[in-house]
Amino acid sequence: MRVTSDADAGRVDWGRVDADGTVYVRTAEGERAVGQYPEGTPEEALAFFVNRYDQLVFEVEQLERRVHAAKSSPDEALTAVKTVRAKVAEANAVGDLASLSARLDALTPLIAAQREVRKAERAAKSAEAKAAKERLVTEAEQLAQSNDWRNGANRLRDLLEQWKALPRIDRASDDALWRRFSTARTAYTRHRKAHFAELNEKREGAKSIKERLVTEAEALASSTDWGATAGRYRDLMSQWKAAGAAPKEIDDKLWKRFRGAQDAFFGARDEANKALDTEFAANAEVKEKILVEAEALLPAVQSPGADIAAAKAAFRDLAERWDAAGKVPRDRIRDLEGRMRKVEQAIRGAEDEQWRKSDPEKSARADDVVTKLEAAIAKVEDELATAQAKGDAKKVQSLEENLASRRMFLEAAKAAAADFS
Predict the structure, then answer these.
(1) What are the backbone angles phi and psi of residue 219, rounded to the nearest 5°?
(2) Are 333 and 386 contained in the same domain?
(3) What does DSSP assign to residue 40?
(4) Is residue 4 scored above 60 in pLDDT?
(5) How far apart are CA 245 and CA 201, in angstroms?
(6) Is the N or C terminus of the chain more exposed, i.e. has fewer CB atoms within 10 Å?
């Protein structure tokens, strides 16, 4: 008796069952017994061995997918093909075993092509590594000719770590590049040591300069000529920085004296300024009252149909009174000026917004965006209906996500367009 599975209806039959329950598979070389199923019907016996064939089909399909996706190395793929081919050749199953062998044979040239691709990729990576090492060598050689003593040593250490992280290339090239890299590091280190030896000689000169600066700073500490003396202290500070470093212990002591003289002068100046702040306190009260009037303009300019021109005119009058009120204590300047500036910015912002909403070009652009989005959504909806009709679940999911995103953008665009209506 010969039968075929429902899934293979219409194909040539591949098996039969003898009266004793022995099941045979038909091959190009003739029939071959694949086993017995004496306890069931002939149909059940064939179904059992057809199911084994289906399992082989599934395994071949899985292997084909892995090979086409290049998820394994060529050697691993060839080993897998060999293993599955042996299973097919010896399979106790009913089905077109020859076609499965042919499908496995078809994978061999593909694997060979993938091997060539990987070979080319390895060559490309080697070329990339060589180019990267050449860049590191070039930068190291540039550093060896520089005088970047602050950052150069750290940068060379970074370059060395980058070198270690790169794969080796052909030995001759790798050795030649390493010799250049190492020579550059050695040259930089030698120059750096020579620089700091020279710097030590300069520190004695810096000591003399800073002692002179400290003497002058201490003489100025009792001055009450606040503006000119503050400027002179800035000059002395610039000269201090330009003098360079003295020996550390001496440098710290001189700096303490220099800073102490500065602190004495600026402390006295701060006390004098406090007296002025007391004098300017009344001006701050005047400006507080002006701010009350200015901040009262905010609700008006922020309401629909606001008379921006009237608000601007009122603010100009308040600004003139503000300037006439004079100076305020220093600790009040930021707060008072900030509040006044906030009112000014609100009026300017309302004026800008009024213009923006009346700009016909922006309105037209907003409407155009809405129109284009609606057209795009309609197209995606058509594509979605087609995919649903075909039962293409993957494409349906992709199109539904696309459609949701576009609808979200459409809502935002309509909201923006409404601002101009």
Answers:
(1) -70, -30
(2) no
(3) S
(4) no
(5) 11
(6) C
Answer whether 24's CB lies under 8 Å from 16's CB: yes
Cβ-in-10-Å burial (0-12, 13-18, 19+) of 192 comes to middle
Domain identity same for 212 and 305: no
* Tally of CB atoms within 10 A around 40: 13
Query: Which residues are within 8 A (CB) of 363 and not within 5 positions of it... i.e. 6 or more apart?
Result: 417, 420, 421
**Separation in Å, CA 28 to CA 25, 96, 165, 231, 318:** 10, 10, 57, 106, 105
Among positive and negative, which fits the CA dihedral 193, 199, 204, 207? Answer: negative
| DSSP state, residue 303 | S
Query: With contact defined as beta carbons under 8 Å apart, do 25 and 7 qualify?
Result: no
As a 3-state breakdown, the chain gives helix, strand, coil percent values, each rounded to 5, of 80, 5, 15
Name the CA radius of gyration of the chain, rounded. Answer: 44
Choosing from 119, 151, 181, the residue where a domain stops is 119
In a shared domain, residues 159 and 228: no
Q: Residue 328 in contact with residue 288, Cβ under 8 Å? A: no
- How many domains are there within the chain? 5
The answer to whether residues 186 and 108 belong to one domain is no
Question: Taking each helix axis from N to C terminus, what angle separates 171-220 and 226-243, rounded to the nearest 10 degrees?
Answer: 150
Task: Find the domain containing 87 and state its range.
Answer: 2-119
130, 175 Cβ separation under 8 angstroms = no
pLDDT digits 0-9 by tens, 233-259:
999 999 999 988 888 889 999 999 999
Q: Could you tell me the two tokens for 110?
A: 């593909």
Of the ranges 50-54, 241-245, 321-325, the best mean pLDDT one: 50-54
Shared-domain flag, residues 14 and 108 = yes
User: Residue 36: in which H helix or E strand, if any?
Assistant: strand 30-36
Residue type, 263: D
Distance CA 306, CA 303 (A): 6
Say if residue 299's pLDDT is above 60.
yes
CB 119, CB 84: distance < 8 Å: no
- Whether residue 261 sits in one domain with residue 305: no
Q: Of 357, 383, 410, which closes a domain?
A: 357
Residues 82, 163 share a domain? no
Asked if 377 and 354 count as a contact pair (C-beta separation under 8 A), the reply is no
Place of tokens 């030995």: 171
